[in-house]
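Hello again,

I reread your note about wanting to compare the complex against the isolated chains. To keep things tidy I'm splitting this into two emails, and this first one only covers the full assembly. Below are the input lines as submitted, including protein chains and any nucleic acid or small-molecule components. They are followed by the predicted structure of everything together. The single-chain runs will come separately.
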Amino acid sequence: MRDKRMTADEVVSQIKDGMTVGIGGWGSRRKPMALVKAILRSAIKDLTVVTYGGPDAGLLCAAGKVRKLVYGFVSLDSIPYDPWFKRARETGAIEVLELDEGMFQTGLRAAGHRLPFLPIRAGLGSDVLKYAPELKTVRSPYDDGEELVAMPALKLDVALVHLNRADRHGNAQYLGPDPYFDDLFCLAADRRYVSCEQIVETFDGPPQTLLLNRMMVDGVVEAPGGAAFTSCVPDYGRDEALQREYANAASDLEQWPAFYERFLG
Amino acid sequence: MSDITRAEVCVAACADLFAGAGETLASPMGLIPSLGAKLARLTTEPDLLLSDGEAFLLTPESTVEGWLPYRKVFDIVAHGRRHVVMGANQVDRFGNQNISAIGDHARPTRQLLGFRGAPGNTVNHRTSYWVPRHSPRVLVEAVDVVSGVGYDRAAGPFHDVHRVVTNLAVLDFDTPDHSMRLVSTHPGVSVDEVQKQTSFPLVADEVTETRLPTDEELELIRTRLDPQGKRDKEVPS
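Full-complex prediction:
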């Protein structure tokens, strides 16, 4: 079996300007921050970033890596708003596709199933469709004739996710209470990279915690603490102090360069 | 029991949102709606399902009785056995809600959370709103961005915007054209005051006074659900 271990910089060397990159986790939870940091340190630009957004979205906006952001929300959970995302929006620095979060999941699922779209009710009547005129509706071909949103596939060039454990072949396990949508991100992407707290030979715990199997993964990075300052329970909770520092520095451009330098290490 | 606070009235009003809900997932956002949902479960709605806001369904004793990660929440949303109580940066006369952005969406003057689940929630199952500071800036004639869908839009067969509970009043949409109606004002609040804090004319034909919590409810709120009195910070008396 193939040994897929690599470094974060090797992962990022696979990402080209203009690519569409999906980032797993949810809000400020189990974000692949070690991989995001490697993007921040790189010269990559013009990315379309697809995320249930947390500080990953803010940091990539801060570094000018984002041409377009696809999201249902951006939040730091314990801090409602991400200051960098707000600034990027309020200065018109980025293009956006703002979706209902169920539409987002449906788009990933359509991509994973190699379908052009999947129908969903979410979005009807709301301004999601007004601000994204590329989204179309479809009429049920059955007797009900109901009109539904035809959520297009959110196809990804690259998926980046962080799990608790993985083996060198790419099988990977979450140990917290929520898988989030990391498996869907991997199915929706051409190239899939998982960072993990620890690479193991064999897995402990119930087999249904094995979220990713190796045919869904192209590269494995051992990155202890690789989700911090977001949470990666049960290995660690969110580093609220560091997140507050991030949010404070992000709100004050004078403080930002010093924080950013320290944060990138 | 004396000295009932405004916050406690709001908690009971939020509990009443779930009247008759039965085995339905209650998804309250924010402290007062959460206290209300828990109060309902402990009193009139023992069959209600309550999540911890993360991945578990919890009993009132905080025992895990179910697993509900986000992906399964979306299944419940589509299935429809859910009553969400969302916040609202803006809510308008026909129950449209905005949590996305203030100003022009292309370049907002104030970016908020984003659409979140509001579009899906409102076309799939019962939705109520909680407004801790009832003011003309929140109760607006028309929202800047429609996140949650109101009654003046084509919203499909499962659309059901139930009520708006604020720090001043309880409102619903039970009028011929589904425009917002003042159901009750909280004790000590006048109809005029509610109207003055609302940017559009409310239907106010048969306004009552919001009920006081019972002694049993007050006991539960004060000693069991919120002994530290966090509710009074969200809604000062």
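For quick reference: Chain B is about 25% helix and 20% strand.

B.
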